[in-house]
Amino acid sequence: MIPNAPVSELIRSKGGTVWTVTPETMVFDAIQMMAEKNIGALVVAEGGRMVGLMSERDYTRKVVLKGKSSKTTPVREILSEKVVSVTPETTVQECLQLMTQSRIRHLPVMRNHDLLGIVSIGDLVNWVIQAQSSTIQQLETYISGYPTEG
Fold first, then answer.
1. Rounded-to-integer distance, Cα 37 and Cα 32, Å
2. Which of 24, 103, 118, 126 is deepest in the core (most CB within 10 A)?
3. Looking at the domain 7-144, which fold is it?
């Protein structure tokens, strides 16, 4: 595992499953899906194309704090339309920097207009931690003089 690999390796490792809703989906149903799938954001798609993202942050700021009802509010009213995305060649480090600068927690991975997957800040941090652990183990093995497995 390479610490600063292209994000396509992370997608390949975790899988490219992306959960989607339509703009007409009621927010309650979208939140319920996020809870069932244990995810923090959903891609909002229409006609096979991504039209935005809906995150837990969108829900808390645009429904809960404004006193709206999640059962009568469609996703189209709260989704984030200006979505920051990356390409499969973008490195894990570049994704982390972009997320920090943009103050976001989810990044769609796109090739042209095709959605290949989505990564969260947690996915990226876990990748870096695993890569660093692997590097440390390899260095310890090298220093101790024992051959590596594999």
1. 9
2. 118
3. CBS-domain (3.10.580)
| Alpha helices (runs of H) in the chain, residue ranges in sequence order | 7-14, 27-37, 56-59, 92-102, 121-144
List the structure tokens of 101. 């600068």
Sign of CA dihedral 63, 64, 66, 72: positive
CA distance 76 to 104: 19
Whole-structure pTM over 0.90, yes or no? no
Amino acid symbol at 66 = K
Domain extent listing, the chain? 7-144
User: What is the rounded average pLDDT for all residues in the chain?
Assistant: 91
Report pLDDT digits (tens) over 22-45: 999 999 999 999 999 999 999 999
Quick one: DSSP state of residue 78? T
